[in-house]
Amino acid sequence: MPVYTMSCFKLPSSLCKKINSILAQYWWASNEDDKKMQWVKWNKLIEAKQKGGSGLRDIKLFNESLLFKHIWRFLANPNLLVSKVLRARYFHNSSLLTAPCPKGASWFEKGVASVRDKFLAGLRKRIGDGSTVDIWEDRWIPDVGGWQTFHQQA
Q1: Residue 144: helix, strand or coil by DSSP?
Q2: Can you tell me the distance from the alpha carbon of 116 to that of 105, in angstroms, rounded to the nearest whole number?
Q3: What residues have CB less than 8 Å from 87, skipping those under 6 apart?
Q4: N or C: which end of the chain has fewer CB within 10 A?
Q5: 29's torsion region: left (phi>0), alpha (psi -120 to 50) or beta?
């Protein structure tokens, strides 16, 4: 499994599908010429072992989660050397969360930018003493049933 590569670059969807196909063919003991019965659904194969699945990973989701890890490390540990280098190289004029992806962006920068919106959808700000929270712009209330967020009228 190309885990290091997956943690640095967003793999093309076609490659993820091909790797998933190879995993499924191995599990279902089939080859290109001889199709066998699929006794277990793919969704059951990629379900966690604790939930009764086989624990295989969906490669596309695994790739995205590894890229999420870089974003989280960058945000949670801004004083790490890697965070400082990334900030100086890619995000010196803006935040990782708001920086546009320029035309000549590196593969790493494109990979992080491709999953940033998904990451932001699940990100919530911890309130603490409230000194760093903009209640109108920051996502600090979870979008769960019964909750509605309102935006300030301009």
Answers
A1: coil
A2: 15
A3: 74, 78, 96
A4: C
A5: left
Measured CA to CA, the distance from residue 135 to residue 151 in angstroms comes to 9
What is the C-alpha separation between 24 and 38, in angstroms, rounded?
Answer: 9
Distance in angstroms (rounded) separating the CA atoms of residues 54 and 40: 10
How many other CB atoms are there within 10 angstroms of residue 19's CB atom?
20
Contact status, residue 6 vs residue 63, Cβ threshold 8 Å: yes
Alpha carbon distance 67, 61 (integer Å): 10
Q: Would you state the structure tokens that stand for residue 101, as one six-digit string?
A: 């992806």
pLDDT, one tens digit per residue, over 19-57 is: 988 888 777 765 566 666 667 777 888 888 888 878 788
Cα 20 from Cα 33, distance rounded (Å):
18
- Is the separation of the CB atoms in 87 and 95 below 8 Å? no
| CB within 8 Å of 70: residues ≥ 6 apart | 7, 112
70-127 pLDDT, tens digit each: 888 888 888 999 888 888 887 777 777 887 887 888 888 888 888 888 888 877 777 7
